[in-house]
Design brief:
About 35% of the residues lie in helices and about 15% in strands. The protein contains 12 helices and 13 strands. It has helices spanning about 25-40, 75-90, 130-135, 190-200, 215-220, 235-245, 260-270, 280-285, 300-305, 315-325, 325-350, 355, and strands at about 10, 45-50, 60, 95-100, 115-120, 140-145, 155-160, 180, 205, 230-235, 250, 275, 290-295. A 7-stranded parallel beta sheet has the order 3-2-1-4-5-6-7, with helices on both faces. A 6-stranded parallel beta sheet has the order 10-9-8-11-12-13, with helices on both faces. Helix 5 links the parallel strand 9 and strand 10. Helix 1 crosses helix 11 (about 325-350) and helix 4 crosses helix 9 (about 300-305). The radius of gyration is 21 Å and the shape is globular. About 45% of the residues are buried.
């Protein structure tokens, strides 16, 4: 069987954080995993990211560092515009542009003949949907979960995120604490994790960036004087791995339809089951009674804490190895990019629209 030819791929990352991020930065982490994986497969990859990014691909940088990591270091809008423009000014060098940035690059997409595949990392607001809708006729959209598909848009695939397992250590014997890991924001339910831990009679470790300071001050900080509730701040990879692996369970009591949830998969990779509300992608990621529990309220979460000891932590890791590896994600994207590039080449020769002839192929397992 003939091997598929290597593709020339431009990967456009966000410049909010370094690629890969030092700590928090899920979009940049996905862009990094994708770029490195494609390069390993032999594709010719150029990563458009911050100058301090780390990659085996070619790096093109405008911004010196992530604007969230050095607030006020430069004008964000100016750098974002120059960053996106740099990718599109070089578009004819690529077979495909992988847009991991958000909706703004779509506004450049009619100006180039290179197909643009946009991974939609969620909708921050319904107000951004008109941009996706305006380019639906030529855009190639990837959903990161079936739950996050918008009914007004046409998708080429659903591709669940995958993670590199090497930074995560499987722990068969956890400690006796519960963990909250993520943005400290009402949407993430930090205060609910505090309530569950209190009622379960277990210590709680809280880790992550404070995104809503009023919320933190009013509903989280007062509990830090309580025995057993600890806030350790944002954590780097090594501390993240240790906290996840040592936890009895990860509490993910979200209050919104989360598009994916990398921390959930990372928790399972260390063997730690997850207790979550069944919103957004959670029913696609968590297998109730096998890798965690989906609960409807705090009472259900407290009851689930009592049951996590019955779950096999090895089966949590097995599920990640089966469904959520970086290799699987990269292979899915490589297949999609080859299909899009081939269709674009044919349509260029025939003058036909690639969108009109494409079929939606969900590549999620």
């Amino acid at each position: 069987m003939k091997e598929p030819r290597p593709l020339r791929i431009g990967v456009l990352a966000s410049i909010a954080h370094r690629t890969p991020p030092h700590g928090y930065g899920p979009w940049e982490q996905v862009a990094s995993t994708l770029a490195e994986g494609l390069a390993t497969l032999g594709h010719d990859v150029t990563l458009f990211a911050t100058a301090d990014s780390r990659t085996a691909a070619r790096l093109h940088a405008v911004a010196p560092c992530g604007y969230e990591e050095e607030p006020g270091g430069y004008d964000v809008k100016v750098s974002e515009c120059l960053h996106i423009a740099a990718a599109f000014e070089r578009a004819d060098e690529f077979d495909v542009l992988s847009n991991q940035f958000d909706f703004l690059p779509l506004t450049y997409s009619r100006l180039v003949s290179t197909p643009v595949v946009t991974t939609i990392h969620g909708f921050s607001s319904e107000r951004i949907v008109p941009v996706y809708r305006a380019y639906d006729d030529i855009g190639h959209y990837v959903a990161i979960s079936d739950a996050d598909r918008h009914p007004d848009l046409t998708y080429d695939a659903t591709i669940h995120h995958g993670i590199d397992l090497s930074p995560f250590t499987f722990q068969d014997r956890p400690g006796e604490y519960l963990l909250f890991l993520g943005r400290i924001h009402p949407d993430k339910g930090t205060h609910l994790a505090v309530e569950v831990a209190r009622r379960a009679g277990l210590p709680l470790v809280i880790a992550g960036i404070v995104q809503d300071r009023d919320y933190f001050r009013e509903l989280v900080e007062p509990h830090l004087t309580t025995a057993g509730v600890t806030y350790v701040g944002p954590v780097g990879p090594a501390e993240r791995d240790a906290l996840l692996g040592g936890a009895l369970a990860l509490l993910h009591l979200i209050g919104f339809a989360e598009p994916f949830g990398l921390s959930v998969v990372e928790s399972l990779a260390t063997g730690t089951p997850v207790i979550a509300y069944p919103l957004g992608s959670m029913p696609e990621i968590i297998r109730p009674g096998r890798t965690g529990f989906l609960v409807d309220d705090v009472d259900g979460a407290v009851e689930a804490v009592d049951r996590v000891g019955s779950l096999s932590r090895r089966r949590c890791l097995d599920d990640v190895e089966e469904r959520f590896t970086a290799a699987r994600m990269v292979a899915d994207y490589a297949e999609l990019f080859a299909r899009v590039a081939s269709a674009s080449s044919r349509s260029t020769r025939s003058g036909m629209s690639t969108k009109a002839n494409r079929t939606d192929a969900s590549l999620a397992p």
